[in-house]
Structures are given as structure tokens and as C-alpha cells.
């Protein structure tokens, strides 16, 4: 049986023998589960496969991790994606043992690429959750629900440009309880709706519901109970509102009054106002671009605390003059006229926030504007600005390999880009020439030659003082635009691109593998079925834990796109229910992502089912998912763990103990950021003793004891610097270190007392039930 794997039989309830436990060595520490992502990073860390490597290793993976290309790269490419169905039908072998093995992803840093994907694909933000609406007739649909907190609304107010009829719109909302707001995409209609509601109901009571399904119309939802939250304002947006009548709008107004709520329905259809929809229908146009630019630039200068007037002590009075100067520039005016949308004016403001008042720097700033980014991307990939493609047969694949590698790994060390780019070049060369191994290296023409455009705009920047050196696009969205051009404009590159991503996931280092999975998830938002069939599902069925984690990372990205959330949910639920150990593990990993956050109650139920499966006995995936879910829904997750600890099935209790150990590592939120998160959350409740039995179970079970004692040690050390925390931790220790844990507890405390005042204080307390009757740690016969 692997170290610390869950045995099938129940352990003895007898007290552990009073023999000192083994020394907690560095090697034991290295067996910690895959949850040591950088503090604050809520991305699910990846449990490892069956081939552990030294922590921190950046060397190339060994040959046994390399995909089998014995038949040649050409043959592998020809067969890629064609045998997926046959592979899927093959019974899986082996089970995940990630709890007892070292995580090679413990040193992964947060990846900005994920944040950029989320910002680009989900306007509703990171706090969205999926809800199930039960409609008349028994139909159930999925919708995305989000809540804007006061800080978000207050920030939005700084840059909001109110339309001339704003006061009229507010009066209409207050009197009718409902508005039907029409405006073209890009006019800022959602922001207008949220600010209107914030002014009417308060900045902390603005919510929204988005229905992705195109077969759900306003008439479908009219009269549905429970849609609106009492005392709140809700923005309702449907993908296809359907036919709208005054009767339908009046029904929604009645629903709002009955719920003591306010509602704004959004519609992107334009056209002449319909008098029959009065008094509910209102139209909005995009605010004047110059005003939007002014508000955003002032807000950006304030955010950066930038003085633009050389003031001795800046009081921000210099900033309006700087904005006026920007608006006098003909290039700025031309840009605002060319693309007057609010989002584009905001982009322009951000680009000019660092302007140094020189013409050269103005050109540099304007080169990053969104309206030009995809044009640059298309010219780069299509080679419209180079002339040597005909003379040099390797020029086109080399150039495209560089561009795609930079787009996919923007922000990564240059060494990573060289490595993945060379692999892509070999693939593209085989596709173009049906021959392997191009003779020239990838970058021998120079990076600048590969990433230049006609007007010599600077699109990549490198900080020479940064180590390791990294290249970043000046406009981070260039990364997505290049990949978009490659995917949609070059059909012949699709299969090679997917083959490349698969190679990187199969054999790449952790950071390389994660980024490849994120790109697969992003591409799946464009072609869901193809990516799921060729990459994501085969990854989920892999015998390697690192590859299964890639499937979960791709699911994480997909779950932020409302169009695919329900489809992903259904397929992952299927993974959890089929007779396949690898898919069970992949389902648990996927639940530790935004998918689980969107369906917390359902996810916890599925994780309980998976925790009862014997094929996850050695896996950390359930515990890692519970750790992530706690950051999203702490109360519900904590109560679930307590319930698991009372289960009759032993393996479920062990998964609860493992989850506690991972949760014990999380730091609290301000103002108690020096506390363990579990304790800071319980400090303001009456449930201070809620985790006592869970702690006792983790400390006494042979499969979790070693790490549980180390977690308790960390809490005692953290308490040394905070008197209030010390009271809480010492009180906890006095409650949980009762028989049969008293003897072992004293043993550990005696070892820790020299390094921890809290441990020493706990050891000095009277022990309630030591062997042989009442005594203190200093009683005769008690080992010193």
C-alpha cells in the first residue's frame, strides 16, 4: 500500500501506543499534497503523476514523459485526433496516488493569462455563480447570477458619464420599478443600468442575471417567482429576448413591486422607439467619446498617483490641464473619431496615462490602441510586412512559430518561448514540407524581425533588468488576437496547433503545461466540440495526473463563458458517474475550479460521492477541490466537512481530514491576515468548536496524522506573534489533545516548546485525562 493511502479496512479505534512517533523529516515534508500554490492564488494546484521529481527542478523532463514519436512526427500528426474514440473505449488502469507524492507544481506562480482570459470572456466578473431556474411546466434552465459590491459601484462612478436624460431615467425607474433599456452593443448600456440601480437602491444592492440559452425569451420568464431579490436592483440580460410587448413588461414591473425590488432589462436591438412599450422602454446612445476619455484618464492618473505638472507637492490640480493637452492632439482626436465606443475611449485613456508629452511617446501609446491590435496581428501572421518568404522556404513556418509561441506564452521567460517555439517549428515544417527536423534554429533571424509591423510600432517589450528575462506584448490583448487570427484565418494550422498543445501538456514543465491547458480552454470557447473531443476528454482519461490536471485547467477557463457552462457541467458530472478511475479523478480536479464555484451545492454533493469511491483512496484531488471551494463558499464547505467527518464510510472521513490539512495552510483575510483562515472565519461566529472533532480525527488517523501534527505546529508558531490568536490556538489545543491523543500530544509539545511560546504554554496547562488519572505535565512519572 502506498504511503498514506487510505486502507480499505477500518483502522483500530484503540489509542496509539505511547511510543514516540517517527521524526518529521524533510522527506516527510516533501510528501505534502498538491496545494502549495502561492498564497492568494485560487487556481487549483495540480496533483502530480506517478513520476515525482525534485522540488523546484527546471530541467527538461525525462524520456519516459515524452510522447511516443517512434513512428515519426509525420505519422503522429497524421494519426492525431483520429483514434480518440478508440482510446476512450479502452479501460483505464491504475489509480491516482497524488496524496503521497510530491507536487511538482508547488512553486507555480499565478498566471496573468488566466486573468486576461476571464476579463475578455466574462463581463459579469469573477463573482458570478450559476443558478437553476425552475420554470413553469417543469423546465429547468441555467443562468449566471452576479453581485456588484459597493466598492465596484463606487469605482464605476469615477468613470461614469451620465447621459443628458439620466435624471429622467432615474425618475422612470423609481416610479415604474422597471425599465426596458435598449442600446447597441458597446454603448455602455450595462454600466448605465448598474449605476441607475446603484443610485436608486444603494451601491451594495446591485445584482444581475444573464441567461445564455437562446431559446429563453422574456415571455418565458415573465411571472416567474423568485427571480428578483427583495430590496435589490437587478440587471436582466437574455441572449435572445424575443418578442417584447407592453403586457410582458407590465408583468415584470408587477413582479418587481411584489418583490419590493427594481429591474432593468437590457436589449441590444436598436431602432425607432415603440410608443406601445411606454412607459417602460428607454433608449440609450453611447456617451460622447471625449467625455469618456476625460473621466477615465483622470481616474487613471488618480489611481497611479501621478503628478503631470512637476508640482512641489501635487494636489492633483495639474491633471485637468494634462487631459486638455491630450485632447488638443490631432492624433488623439482622430482616434476618438475612428472608434468612439466607451470601451475604446477608456483604452485610449489608459494608454496615455504614462504619456511624457513627446510626439514619439504619443506614437508609442497610440500603437497600443485596440482598434489597431487585430490588424497588426493579422499582418504579422500573414506575413504582409515581410518579403523574404518566397526566397527562404523556412521563413513562413519559422516566423509563424515565433509569433504563435510569443502569443501563447506572453510573459513567460524567453527560454520557455525558445523551447516551445522550436517544437512548433518542427511541427509546422512537417506540415508544410512533409520532412522532419528543419536545419536552422528558430530565432536566428532575430526576434525583432519576426515581430515587426510596417509602421515600426513597438509591440513587444523586454526588461533587460529582469531575470529571467521575459518578453511581453505592449498590449496584452495582442496575444489573443494572434491566436484568434491563427485559429480562424488559417484552417491548415488548426491540427498542428492542437498537436503542439497536446505535446506541451504531455511533456512540458508545470508552467508550460498550465498555459497550454488555458489556451485549449480559450480555444474551446470558439470550437467547443472539437477541442473537447481532440484534447480535453483524452486528457481527462490519461493515466498521468499532470495531464488530467490540464483537463481541469481547460475546464476552468471554459466555465467562465456562460455559453458553455451548462455543457461543461453536464460532461464533468458524467465523468463523476462513469466506471473509470481517471475520469473520477478528473471530475474532482475540475470541481476545484470556477465550475465548482458556479455550482457549489451540487459540487459538494458530487465530491461526497467521489470521496466514497475506492479509486480515489490515494488521491489529493478531492481535498484540493474542497480547499478551493472553501475560498468561494466557506460556510457551506466547512459544514460539509464536519458532516463528512461523521460519515460511517471510513474513506470519506479520511478525505475530510485531508481537506482540513490543506485548509489549515490558508492565511486569513484582513484584518486577521496573520491568522489561519479557518480560525479567522470562526472568530466572529459561535462555531468556535465546530472543527474540534475534525482536528482529532486528522491527528489520530494513520493516513493523515503526520501532516496534521505539522499543521498544528504551524498554527502554534503563528500564534506566538499574536496574543489574541494565541488564546484561540491554545484553547483549541487544550480541547483536541484529549485521550487518546494526550500522550502523543505531550510528546510533540515537548519537542516544540523551545521554538514556540504557544506550544510551551499549552504544555503547561493541566491535562484533563492523562493515562492513570488527573495529573499535569509535570506530575511524577510523566516523561520530561
Determine the CATH topology of the domain at 122-160 and 162-283. Rossmann fold
Beta-strand percentage range: 5-15%
Structural class: mainly alpha
Give the N-terminus to C-terminus distance in angstroms: 36 Å
**CATH secondary-structure class of the domain at 122-160 and 162-283:** Alpha Beta
Biased composition (Basic and acidic residues): 75-85
Region (Disordered): 1-113, 763-784
Biased composition (Pro residues): 14-23
Biased composition (Low complexity): 1-13
Which terms summarize this structure?
disordered C terminus, 784 residues, single chain, Rossmann fold, mainly alpha, 7-stranded mixed beta sheet
Strand-helix topology:
Elements: H1 26-29, H2 73-79, H3 84-89, H4 112-121, E1 129-134, E2 140-148, H5 150-159, H6 166-176, E3 178-182, H7 189-201, E4 206-211, H8 218-221, E5 233-238, H9 246-258, E6 262-267, E7 281-283, H10 289-303, H11 319-328, H12 330-338, H13 342-352, H14 359-366, H15 370-382, H16 395-408, H17 414-433, H18 447-450, E8 460-462, E9 471-473, H19 478-489, H20 494-507, H21 510-524, H22 528-540, H23 545-558, H24 562-577, H25 581-591, H26 594-598, H27 600-611, H28 621-632, H29 634-645, H30 650-663, H31 677-682, H32 692-700, H33 705-719, H34 723-736, H35 742-752, H36 757-764
Parallel strand pairs: 3-6, 3-7, 4-5, 5-6
Antiparallel strand pairs: 1-2, 2-4, 8-9
Region (Disordered): 1-113, 763-784
Biased composition (Pro residues): 14-23
Biased composition (Basic and acidic residues): 75-85
Amino acid at each position: 500500500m502506498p504511503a498514506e493511502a487510505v486502507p480499505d479496512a477500518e483502522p483500530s479505534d484503540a489509542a496509539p501506543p505511547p511510543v514516540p512517533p517517527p521524526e518529521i523529516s524533510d522527506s516527510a515534508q516533501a510528501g505534502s499534497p498538491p496545494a502549495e500554490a502561492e498564497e492568494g492564488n485560487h487556481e487549483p494546484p495540480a496533483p502530480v503523476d506517478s513520476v515525482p521529481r525534485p522540488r523546484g527542478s527546471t530541467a527538461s523532463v525525462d524520456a519516459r514523459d515524452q510522447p511516443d514519436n517512434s513512428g515519426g512526427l509525420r505519422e503522429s500528426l497524421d494519426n492525431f485526433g483520429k483514434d480518440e474514440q478508440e482510446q476512450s473505449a479502452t479501460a483505464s488502469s491504475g489509480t491516482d496516488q497524488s496524496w503521497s507524492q510530491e507536487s511538482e507544481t508547488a512553486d507555480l506562480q499565478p498566471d496573468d493569462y488566466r486573468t486576461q482570459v476571464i476579463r475578455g470572456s466574462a463581463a459579469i466578473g469573477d463573482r458570478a455563480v450559476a443558478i437553476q431556474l425552475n420554470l413553469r411546466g417543469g423546465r429547468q434552465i441555467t443562468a449566471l447570477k452576479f453581485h456588484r459590491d459597493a466598492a465596484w459601484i463606487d469605482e464605476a462612478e469615477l468613470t461614469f458619464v451620465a447621459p443628458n436624460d439620466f435624471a429622467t431615467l432615474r425618475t422612470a425607474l423609481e416610479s415604474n420599478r422597471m425599465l426596458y433599456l435598449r442600446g447597441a452593443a458597446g454603448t455602455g448600456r450595462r454600466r448605465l443600468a448598474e449605476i441607475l440601480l446603484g443610485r436608486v437602491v444603494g451601491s451594495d444592492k446591485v445584482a444581475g442575471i444573464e441567461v445564455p440559452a437562446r431559446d429563453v425569451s422574456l415571455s418565458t420568464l415573465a411571472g416567474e417567482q423568485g427571480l428578483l431579490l427583495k430590496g435589490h436592483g437587478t440587471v436582466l440580460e437574455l441572449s435572445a429576448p424575443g418578442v417584447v410587448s407592453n403586457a410582458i413588461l407590465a408583468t415584470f414591473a408587477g413582479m418587481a413591486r411584489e418583490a419590493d425590488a427594481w429591474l432593468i432589462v437590457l436589449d441590444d436591438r436598436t431602432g425607432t422607439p415603440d410608443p406601445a412599450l411606454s412607459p417602460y422602454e428607454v433608449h440609450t446612445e453611447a456617451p460622447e467619446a471625449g467625455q469618456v476619455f476625460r473621466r477615465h484618464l483622470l481616474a487613471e492618473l488618480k489611481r497611479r498617483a501621478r503628478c503631470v505638472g512637476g508640482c512641489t507637492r501635487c494636489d492633483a490640480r495639474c491633471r485637468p490641464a494634462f487631459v486638455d493637452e491630450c485632447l488638443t492632439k490631432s492624433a488623439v482626436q482622430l482616434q476618438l473619431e475612428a472608434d468612439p465606443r466607451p470601451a475604446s475611449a477608456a483604452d485610449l485613456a489608459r494608454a496615455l496615462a504614462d504619456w511624457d508629452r513627446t510626439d514619439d511617446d504619443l506614437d508609442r501609446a497610440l500603437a497600443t490602441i485596440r482598434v489597431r491590435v487585430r490588424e497588426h496581428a493579422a499582418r504579422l501572421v500573414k506575413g504582409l510586412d515581410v518579403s523574404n518568404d518566397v526566397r527562404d522556404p523556412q521563413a513562413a513556418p519559422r516566423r509563424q512559430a515565433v509569433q504563435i509561441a510569443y502569443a501563447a506564452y506572453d510573459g513567460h521567460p524567453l527560454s520557455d518561448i525558445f523551447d516551445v517555439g522550436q517544437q512548433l517549428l518542427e511541427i509546422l515544417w512537417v506540415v508544410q514540407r512533409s520532412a522532419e527536423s528543419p536545419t536552422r534554429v528558430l530565432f536566428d533571424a532575430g526576434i525583432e524581425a519576426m515581430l515587426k509591423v510596417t509602421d515600426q510600432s513597438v509591440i513587444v517589450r523586454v526588461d533587460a533588468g529582469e531575470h529571467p528575462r521575459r518578453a511581453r506584448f505592449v498590449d496584452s490583448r495582442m496575444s489573443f488576437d494572434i491566436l484568434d487570427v491563427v485559429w480562424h484565418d488559417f484552417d491548415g494550422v488548426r491540427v498542428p496547433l492542437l498537436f503542439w498543445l497536446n505535446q506541451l501538456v504531455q511533456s512540458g514543465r508545470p508552467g508550460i503545461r498550465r498555459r497550454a491547458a488555458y489556451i485549449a480552454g480559450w480555444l474551446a470557447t470558439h470550437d467547443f466540440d472539437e477541442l473537447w473531443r481532440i484534447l480535453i476528454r483524452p486528457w481527462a482519461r490519461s493515466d498521468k495526473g499532470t495531464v488530467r490536471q490540464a483537463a481541469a485547467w481547460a475546464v476552468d477557463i471554459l466555465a467562465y463563458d456562460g455559453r458553455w457552462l451548462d455543457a461543461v457541467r453536464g460532461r464533468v458530472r458524467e465523468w463523476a458517474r462513469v466506471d473509470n478511475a481517471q475520469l473520477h479523478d478528473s471530475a474532482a480536479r475540475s470541481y476545484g475550479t470556477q465550475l465548482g464555484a458556479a455550482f457549489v451545492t451540487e459540487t459538494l454533493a458530487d465530491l461526497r460521492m467521489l470521496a466514497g469511491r475506492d479509486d480515489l483512496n490515494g488521491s489529493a484531488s478531492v481535498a484540493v477541490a474542497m480547499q478551493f471551494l472553501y475560498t468561494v463558499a466557506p460556510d457551506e464547505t466547512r459544514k460539509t466537512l464536519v458532516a463528512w467527518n461523521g460519515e460511517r464510510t471510513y474513506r470519506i472521513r479520511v478525505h475530510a481530514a485531508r481537506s482540513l490539512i490543506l485548509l489549515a495552510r490558508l492565511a486569513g483575510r484582513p484584518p486577521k491576515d496573520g491568522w489561519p483562515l479557518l480560525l479567522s472565519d470562526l472568530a466572529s461566529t459561535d462555531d468556535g468548536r465546530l472543527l474540534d472533532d475534525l482536528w482529532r480525527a486528522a491527528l489520530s488517523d494513520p493516513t493523515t496524522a503526520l501532516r496534521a501534527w505539522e499543521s498544528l505546529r504551524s498554527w502554534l508558531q503563528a500564534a506566538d506573534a499574536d496574543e489574541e490568536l494565541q488564546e484561540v490556538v491554545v484553547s483549541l489545543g487544550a480541547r483536541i489533545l484529549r485521550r487518546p491523543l494526550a500522550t502523543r500530544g505531550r510528546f510533540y509539545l515537548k519537542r516544540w516548546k523551545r521554538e514556540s511560546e504557544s506550544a510551551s504554554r499549552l504544555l503547561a496547562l493541566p491535562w484533563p485525562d492523562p493515562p492513570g488519572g488527573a495529573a499535569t505535565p509535570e506530575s511524577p512519572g510523566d516523561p520530561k
